[in-house]
Design brief:
The protein has about 450 residues and is an alpha+beta fold. It is built from 13 helices and four strands.
Amino acid sequence: MTEDAHTRNMSSAGPHLDMGETAARPGGESGIDIRSELLLLWRWRGVVIAGTLASVLLALVIASVVPSSYQATATVFINPPLFEEAKQQSVFSIEAYERLAGSEFIRNQLLQQLGEKKLVGTGPLPARLSTSIYPSREPGKPYLPLIGLTAECSTPEMAQQIANAWAKLFVDEETRLTAAGRAGSVDFVIDEFPKSSARVAQAQRTLKKVTDEQAKAMSTLKAQAAVDFKGSRQRNLEYLAVSLEEQLFKTRLEQDETARAVTQLEQEVKSMSPVIELSKAITDDALWQTLGRSNGVSGVNDALSTSRLKSQAENTAYTKLAGALAEARVRYASLKGRSDTLAAELGAVRRDAQEVRADVLKSEASIDQLQREQEVESGPYERGLEEVEAQFKKLADRIADARIAKAERQSRLQVGGLAPLPHESIGRNVPGKVGFAGLVGLCLSLVAVWLFAKGRG
């Protein structure tokens, strides 16, 4: 019997469940049929298996991409102080030794030593260094007399070598400083530290005094040069020149249009004059003949005079045309005068702008010259400050070691245990991650299949 047939038989037999089967379903008919749910998931087992395998493969890919990291830890044991040293208040605590082990001075010494042994190349140390101290259960002693020096690298061999070299260097350096303290050579570091600090402060004050004087001189020169004011005036003149250029351009366009109108009106007036003269001649002759026939000789002269005056009366079209021509000529003369005035004003503004620009450039050149002179003047003071600060930094890096060496009569450090070769990388744990991913993928696949099947049903 196939699974589908078996399922159909079970569903058809649903109403005929016996009392024992009904009791196995909590809540009666409204409860969850565990068997049918399991069969439902079994039907979709391929999807569940595929989802689980996909999660496992994804975890494997991620685990293979993540770089390996190995940690190696060497320990340094701190011997208890002698009775005479224990009575001194200057004996350093375990926390002080821990800070000394992780100081920049020790790190630089470690990098230099590894470079000399060809274990690392140039550049920063290819490892992450960290220190640790261990709590103690003994009353009155918060920490065990141990300091852990941990190096984290991409290879186990490098992590082991750096951790062991760090521990040996720390012990050797403290031993050397203690021997120097017994010989009195660290007194120079302790005595020179406050003097170096005073020299740094004095150099800073001197440089500040010089820079203040230079700033005052620069401010005075800028005030005298008035670069900002002149620059603003130059910009205003340039804006005015642009405005005048626009006005001149528009005025000349209007002047050209008026000149063309004058020429056209002159041509019209010129063409109209012969017509007017001919009209007047014809009219005079007609009037002469008419009046001569109707009046006597004595009235001829008066009539002729009257006729001539009438015939020579103003022509309206000619008068309007002549008036328009006169107005055009007056407007053209006005525009020409305005154009000449704008051109002269524009030339004056441009000359003023050039003079102001030249003055600004001269002032900026004098400011640049003063700035270069001030840089030359302050250069020795700045280099002197850098030198005393570098000396102070060297003393600051060694002052903690010197104080420890001064406080103790003999070295209290020794290598407690060298770092073993790490065999497992930290943070990678491929089997654990793959197993966890498989479990998560299985759960998600089961939930997704159940929700999908219920949604379809």
